[in-house]
Design a protein that fits this description.
Shape: globular
Strand order of the largest sheet: 2-1-15
Strand content: 15-25%
Bound molecules: citrulline
Mean pLDDT: 97
Number of strands: 15
Largest sheet: 3 strands, mixed
Length: 251
């Protein structure tokens, strides 16, 4: 799927107080995070995208993870309902921007759903049923976007895309965790060893695969499969349980 735009938001001073279970969360460095975010934006621009940069949100620590706030498909956007209460106010800050490009509908309770669970393919979506996304969320999303959604039940995990991403319609990159699941059957799979599990979250931008730096086995596997890999340092976002896809909504 060719994309031409990305919505992003730099972290604010509140970022260090984000939700995270990462053991190095206490070492998050805001200045370094801002540099890494700026490099992310530059990379998207170099790949030809128009990058729409939203204002930082000083009272919303996780607001840089814009992916979680909406799922777009065709000319519609489904605005999500994040599970953590502390993330619910992010929605109203993203909605006006999405409304410039899409017909929008907002998820309603008891649905909870976050974009980090949703894999885009041309004619279907795959969503995790996770700690953050429930069945009602998936049903509302499927109904509004008018696209079938296959699900992977994984109540122990935060987001599906931390384990599995798609780099084209028939090729997935993933740890062993979900690779034998029926919804990825018949697809090609690039295996990410557990020692590099963070690299399972790839971001495909018009034929190039963005990958977190420092995962040489995965980088080589993806390169050998015929894709150009671009590595980005994501250390400060990793400490906040965030990854490459989380930082943008692309369309
Ligand atoms: C959170 O726990 O909500 C944030 N600290 C990280 C969100 C990461 N988002 C994503 O994987 N799509």
């Amino acid at each position: 799927m060719k994309v031409t735009k990305a919505i992003v938001r730099p972290p604010s001073a509140a970022f260090t107080g984000c939700i995270s279970e990462h053991p190095l969360h206490h070492t998050v460095n805001l200045e370094r995070a801002l540099q890494q975010h700026a490099q992310y934006v530059t990379t998207l621009e170099e790949l030809g995208l128009e990058v729409i940069v939203l204002e930082p949100q000083p009272s919303l620590p996780d607001a840089c993870f814009v992916e979680d706030t909406a799922v777009v498909y065709g000319n519609r956007a489904f605005i999500t309902r994040p599970k953590p209460q502390s993330r619910r106010d992010e929605i109203s800050t993203v909605r006006p921007v999405l409304e410039q490009y899409f017909d929008c509908e907002v998820a309603e309770a008891p649905a909870t759903i976050e974009g980090g669970d949703v894999i885009h393919l041309a004619h279907r979506l795959i969503s995790g049923l996770s700690q953050r996304t429930n069945q009602q969320g998936v049903m509302q999303m499927s109904s509004w976007l008018g696209v079938p959604v296959d699900t992977i039940e994984a109540p122990q995990i935060m987001h599906l895309k931390s384990y599995l991403t798609a780099i084209d319609d028939t090729t997935f990159v993933g740890t062993g965790r979900f690779l034998d699941h029926p919804v990825v059957q018949d697809a090609k799979v690039i295996y990410v060893p557990d020692s590099e599990h963070y690299a399972a979250n790839t971001l495909m931008i018009n034929g190039r695969v963005l990958l977190p730096a420092g995962h040489p086995i995965t980088a080589e596997s993806i390169t050998r499969a015929g894709y150009e890999v671009i590595e980005l340092n994501m250390s400060e976002f990793q400490k906040c349980d965030g990854a490459l896809t989380c930082l943008s909504i692309t369309f």
